Amino acid sequence: MVAYMLLKARVIRNFIPIFLLTSFFYTATQGANFGDPCDPTPIYSQSWKYEDFCNNVYLYCDATTRRCQYKGCSNSDYIHGWDLKVHTFPERCNTRAQYCPDDQSQCRPLLPDGAKCEPQRDDECSGSYAMCLNSTCLIKGAPLSGFCGSEVTNYVSYDSSGQQILQTIIRDNCTQGLYCDYTESHTCILAKAVGVSCTQDNECLSDNCVESNNTCGVAADSFHKVSAWVWVVLAISIFLFVVTTLLLLWFLHRYQSKQEHEKARRFFEQAQRFSKLAEDEKLNEKALKSSNSAYHTSGMIYLATPGSMQFNPRKSNGSPSPSASNN
Fold first, then answer.
1. What is the pLDDT of residue 168?
2. Is the dihedral of CA 206, 208, 210, 215 positive or negative?
3. Which residues form the signal peptide (predicted)?
4. Looking at residue 308, what is its pLDDT?
5. Are 131 and 137 in contact (CB under 8 A)?
6. Residues 6 or more apart from 119 whose CB is under 8 A from it?
7. Spatial CA neighbour of 124 closest among 134, 294, 306, 136
8. Under 8 Å CB-to-CB from 226, ≥6 apart: which residues?
9. Based on the number of CB atoms within 10 Å of its own CB, is 172 exposed (0-12), middle (13-18) or buried (19 or more)?
10. Strand partners, 93
C-alpha cells in the first residue's frame, strides 16, 4: 500500500509540470483568454516583431499578476484584427511625455538618459537626439575621435516573392556626419562621401550604401536635378498635347455642327412640304365648295299653279323660263 502511494505521488509530481507545460504551449499557440496565466518574458521573432505569450490581439501578459489583461495603449490608430464590438480601442500616448511599450500595457513616462529601454525603441527615451542603443537610452552626440558605442542587429525580412532576406543594421551614438568604427578603434570617424566604398549605410553621409557596387550613393530623399533637355522635351510635349486636344475639339465641333445643320434643313424642308400640302388642301376645299354651290343653283325647282308657266324662247341658254302673265 505504501509503495502504491509513493508511486502515485511520483506520477502526480511528474505529471503536474508536463500538464502545466502543455497548457502553456496550448495557450501560446491557440491564444489565451482574459485572466489566463501567462509568462511575461518578452518574445521577439526573427524580424524583431514583439510577440506576447497571450497571443491575443486584445490581451497582453501583465508582469505583476502574470495574467492576461486587456491592452491599455497603442502606438498607432489601427491594430490589425481589432474589433470595437469586442473591446474599446486603447488610447494613444502623448509622445511628448509618454510612450507605449511593446506589450501595449499602458502609457508610461519617457525614460531618462542611462535608463533601460526596449530594443530599438528610440521613442522611449527623453531629450533631443536621444536613442535606444543596446537597450540603454543614450544621447546621439559622440564627437569626432571620441569613444562610441554601436549596436549590430540581424533580422529577417521578406521580399515580394516571399523569400527571406537577412539584413544587418548597425547603429551608433556618433553625431551627425560621423560613424563609429566598431571593428578597430571604437571611435567616431568622418562619414564617407558619395562614390566611396562602404559596407553599411551608417558609413555614408547619405546614409545609403548601394548594395550592387558597395559604394555610397545619393540619399534616398535627396533632390535629383533635372537636365535642361528634359524640360525642353516636357514643354514641347505639353504644347503638342494642347494643340492636338484643341484640334480634336475643333473637328468634333464641326462634325456636330454639320449634324445639327442637317437636322435643321430636314426639319424646314418637311415644314415647307407640310405647309404646301395644307395650302393645296385648302384650295381643294374652296373649289369643292364652289362646285357644290353651282350645282345647287342650276338644279333649282320653281313651284307654280297649273297653267301659269310658259316657255320663253328668248333665253340665251335656250331653256324655257316660266312667266306669271295670263294672256
1. 85
2. positive
3. 1-31
4. 53
5. yes
6. 44, 48, 132, 135, 153
7. 136
8. none
9. buried
10. none
The pLDDT assigned to 70 comes to: 92
Q: Check: CB of residue 103 under 8 Å from CB of residue 51.
A: no
Residue 267 class from Cβ within 10 Å (0-12 exposed, 13-18 middle, 19+ buried)? exposed
Give the three-class secondary structure for 53. coil
**Do strands 108-109 and 130-133 pair parallel, antiparallel, or not at all (unpaired)?**
unpaired
Residue 315: the pLDDT is 46
Other residues' Cβ atoms within 10 Å of the Cβ of residue 318: 8
Contacts for 236 with CB less than 8 Å, ≥ 6 apart: none
What is residue 12's predicted lDDT score, i.e. its pLDDT? 43
| Rounded CA separation 93/77 (Å) | 11
Looking at residue 38, its amino acid is C
Which three cell numbers mark 165? 532576406
Contact 312, 325 (CB under 8 A): no
Q: Is 114 exposed, middle or buried (0-12, 13-18, 19+ CB in 10 A)?
A: exposed
What does the DSSP assignment read for 108-132? EEPB-TT-B--TT-GGGB-STTEEE
Q: Consecutive sets of 10 residues in the chain, 327 residues long: mean pLDDT of each?
A: 39 40 41 83 78 87 91 89 89 91 93 92 92 93 92 83 84 92 90 91 90 88 83 95 96 92 89 86 80 59 53 48 44
pLDDT at residue 32, as a whole number = 75
Positive or negative torsion for Cα 134, 136, 137, 142: negative
DSSP state of 142: B
- Residue with the three cell numbers 492576461: 68
Output the CA torsion sign for 15, 18, 20, 26. Answer: negative
Radius of gyration of the chain (CA): 53
